[in-house]
Amino acid sequence: MSRQEGDRRIDWAQDHMPILEALLKERREEQPLQGERVGIALHLEAKTARLALALKELGAEVAIAGSNPLSTQDAVAEALAARGVHVYARHGAAVEEYFRYLDQVLSHRPTLVVDDGGDLVTRLHLTQPELLEGLRGGTEETTTGLVRLRAMHAAGELKAPMIAVNDAKMKHLFDNRFGTGQSALEAVMHATNLTIAGRYALVVGFGQCGKGVAQRLRGLGARVGVVDIDPVKMNEAWLDGYDVGTMHDLSPKADIVITVTGALRVVRREHLERMRDGVLLANAGHFDVEIDKQALADLASSVERVRDSVDAYRLPDGRRFYLLAEGRLVNLAAGDGHPAEIMDLSFAVQALALLHVVGHRLPPGVHAYPDELDDQVAKLSLTARGIGLEVETEEQVRYRATWREGTQ
Ligand SMILES: NC(=O)c1ccc[n+]([C@@H]2O[C@H](COP(=O)([O-])OP(=O)(O)OC[C@H]3O[C@@H](n4cnc5c(N)ncnc54)[C@H](O)[C@@H]3O)[C@@H](O)[C@H]2O)c1
User: How far apart are CA 283 and CA 119, in angstroms?
Assistant: First the structure.
């Protein structure tokens, strides 16, 4: 892909991100990020490029690295660098190289950080704690990153205020569910060029992402099984009509397994041993730890790349297990990530969170996303789509506030 294609991708995303545009329109003149240096670690593809450019348009100096070694799109990275953002990323970076890029972002001495998964913020604390003095705070994009930040805070080690962007309603209810639902399946279909219909698909983890993935699998004609460790989620999946049970019981039926738990090794040797020939194994959770790749390698007599993003693990008994995108989050490592309209919501949430950090002196810790900012993004989204919003009458407001009126 050429830099020209990178430019086209950024422009296409921008044309489909009206909420971010509306936020910029109201603030461009004011330059609220003038003098700020924003360090970003996010999946470096077109929608993220749009966010980086938006922060620059608000006055910030912006430096960016990828948040996963496989999710960077090089053409987009090149195009973004040509538009004046400091870019440190390459698709397929080795792990040391990936961390070197994070260090290069930190070399800009960020006053604000935008993290996705916690690698940038933990790196800053562990290797360059002197930067904390100039750091106002930042944002965390994903569930797994927040789990890490909360563990850090509980251990008394988090020294900066971080806004829990993932927990914003306008983020996780749409990005995690509808974004991951669509983009994970898009990536599986593109990587394999096989049908979803007629296959038995097992979704491991029935949280925000898992619900979206299960719903879309069903819509495409798969028979869908669900595994979770949370008894409430298992009841919900049961009443939603999914096949529910344990990994032990359901994994032998699976033609496709998609993990979305954020947990370590949910697909292990004892499950792999029971799986059928031809099973597709994909992960949409943040880190490549959900499918035990070592166990796969131990079981296999050979491993061969059979398509871009598909590795065939052949077992001595003849079975083939296909691992997609090396077990890294499939929708970004083997696809384009979430649709632009979804990332428009998430990145509008991000932009407002950064402005909130700049406008307030927050103490270190993980901060809830302010409700009024959530409402602002929700309303801008309706306006952008020309959707009307019902308004309560004064009588309804009074009725809601009284406890005297009941049965009439
Ligand atoms: N691919 C993407 O684009 C994308 C987007 C958003 C979030 N994520 C990542 O996806 C993962 C899940 O995010 P979420 O927002 O759905 O989280 P969530 O907390 O809403 O859901 C996770 C679910 O997994 C279940 N679970 C945990 N351990 C398990 C285990 N051992 N076995 C079975 N189930 C288990 C939990 O009970 C929960 O229901 C995280 O790593 C998150 O960072 C990825």
Answer: 19
